[in-house]
Write a structure and sequence with these properties.
2 domains; alpha/beta; Rossmann fold; six-stranded mixed sheet
């Protein structure tokens, strides 16, 4: 579904990290955690291609997008302001998370936190009790997108946090994200073990998470990050090596899929 969305907010919430609020009632009504939109960041032809953004949240008729400035497209997007401006987008696209998981552990690496917030809110709104939440970043300051607002909001939810930072730490930091995942999985009683891990982040992190889950025999869903030009499966720019040979498209068979369907040895960082 394509639409023109009014910009209600484009707020900087961390170092180079922004939260965009767009009014798009039809897309917001259908959005599921783990899905994404394709967004044209300007009205001109430069850049020519739209950009994929995971859905950070839904608030009534509004879509929330959390993004980090990493190149020309996101730099241009950071400059748009509310008012009369609108942006072209289409979605929601792709497969979202399967929410039918008992005692899930949510895992985010870096800006993979963007869809995990939507996921956590949806699960908590379904009446789930405290969720185990693992978040890793290169530095402690980069956790929660470097946003004190997001940190305060998330830690105020009914989440049990396990934080990981490779460079700097404090009392509850575990180092590498895989090291943080182990105690999260062990936090459930043997009589009521974790029913599955739901993860989003860069491919090397997802590979580590998938390997740990396989070792513990815990089902694992991964939301794959890949470059996209169309979001509709036509351009084949987002293919990921599939277990057993061949490839899957992150925009169609994913972005969320069973970790066992990915050939992690053939994935490239």
């Amino acid at each position: 579904m394509s639409d023109w969305a009014a910009i209600k907010e484009n707020k900087q919430v961390g170092e180079g990290v922004y939260r965009l609020r767009l009014t798009a009632p039809a897309i917001a009504a259908q959005a599921q955690p783990g899905q994404f939109i394709m967004l044209r960041v300007s009205h001109g032809l430069d850049p020519l291609l739209a950009r994929p953004f995971s859905i950070h949240g839904v608030d009534g008729d509004d879509l929330l997008i959390l993004y980090k400035v990493v190149g020309k497209g996101t730099r241009l997007l950071s400059m748009v302001r509310p008012g009369n401006k609108t942006l072209s987008l289409w979605g929601p696209l792709g497969r979202g998370f399967n929410l039918d998981v008992k005692r899930p552990v949510l895992v985010a690496g870096g800006m993979g936190i963007a869809p995990i917030v939507f996921l956590a809110d949806t699960l908590l709104n379904q009446g789930r009790k405290k969720l185990a939440f693992v978040h890793g970043a290169v530095t402690g300051k980069a956790l929660f997108g470097g946003s004190e607002e997001l940190r305060t909001t998330l830690l105020g939810r009914d989440l049990e946090p396990y934080l990981a930072s490779e460079v700097e730490g404090e009392e509850r930091y575990y180092g590498l994200i895989g090291v943080a995942l182990e105690p999260a999985l062990s936090s459930f009683p043997d009589s009521s073990p974790c029913g599955g891990v739901l993860a989003c982040g860069p491919l090397p992190m997802l590979k580590a998470v998938a390997q740990i889950c396989a070792r513990h025999k815990v089902p694992c869903q991964v939301s794959l990050e890949a470059p996209m030009a169309c979001g509709l499966g036509a351009c084949l720019g987002c293919v990921i090596p599939a277990a057993g040979g061949g490839y899957v498209r992150a925009c169609q068979e994913g972005p969320v899929m069973d970790a066992a369907l990915v050939d992690w040895e053939r994935t490239k960082p």
